[in-house]
Amino acid sequence: MRDDFVFVDEVVSGIRWDAKYATWDNFTGKPVDGYLVNRVVGTRAFCAALEKARDKAAELGFGLLLWDVYRPQRAVDRFMRWAEEPEDGRKKARHYPNIERPQMFEQGYVATKSGHSRGSTVDLTLYRLDTGELADMGGDHDLMDVVSHHGADGVPEEAAKNRAHLCAIMEGSGFSSYECEWWHYNLKDEPYPDTYFDFPIE
């Protein structure tokens, strides 16, 4: 692992994580290339900003749960190969109910060059500090559908409020939002804006 990258949980206390692509619980249905352990890795600059986000979230009674930060380029390459494989239906209803696999790239839900591979982009959600339960966001991680867009119609009031909380927390901590995915934020002053890394998470 590069010197400027760290295991996020070792630097930012009080966060939770569930590295979905290291597990069978993701849109491909199996662990993804480059994710050898269920840990999240990011740049030190990312971690410094995340500490601010953690504190802002706590003021509202929330904690942060991270699904993905650094993503090896080999994982992105695996996504592209998977998109060309025959549909087996195992994950379609949950993750891409209204589109076909190749459309994930066409519609901006998955990128051939991902900001995650630069080490300062995060997929995350909120959980309640008093109960530990995940906040209602009106849709799960990697639900590739218009309902996941910021400002989407049909999102229940409580979920819309929680999305707004997350957005305010992250944008107030130096991150920019991504229109198509309520869970996706990128550090504005990222240290490697033009570099896509490929070391495995191990």
Automatic annotation (TrEMBL):
Site positions for Transition state stabilizer: R71
Co-factor(s): Zn(2+)
Enzyme Commission number, as recorded: 3.4.13.22
Gene3D superfamilies: 3.30.1380.10
Domain of life: Bacteria
Binding site residues for Zn(2+): H116, D123, H184
Pfam families in the record: Peptidase_M15
MF annotations from Gene Ontology: D-Ala-D-Ala dipeptidase activity; metallopeptidase activity; zinc ion binding
Top EC group: hydrolase
Catalytic activity, reaction form: D-alanyl-D-alanine + H2O = 2 D-alanine
Cofactor binding summary note: Binds 1 zinc ion per subunit.
InterPro entries xrefs: A_A_dipeptidase, VanX_actinomycetes/firmicutes, Zn_M74/Hedgehog-like
Assigned keywords, A-Z: Cell wall biogenesis/degradation, Dipeptidase, Hydrolase, Metal-binding, Metalloprotease, Protease, Zinc
Record: active site: E181 (proton donor/acceptor)
GO biological process annotation, one example: proteolysis
Stated family: Belongs to the peptidase M15D family.
Function comment: Catalyzes hydrolysis of the D-alanyl-D-alanine dipeptide.
Cross-referenced NCBIfam families: dipept_VanX
Protein's recorded name: D-alanyl-D-alanine dipeptidase
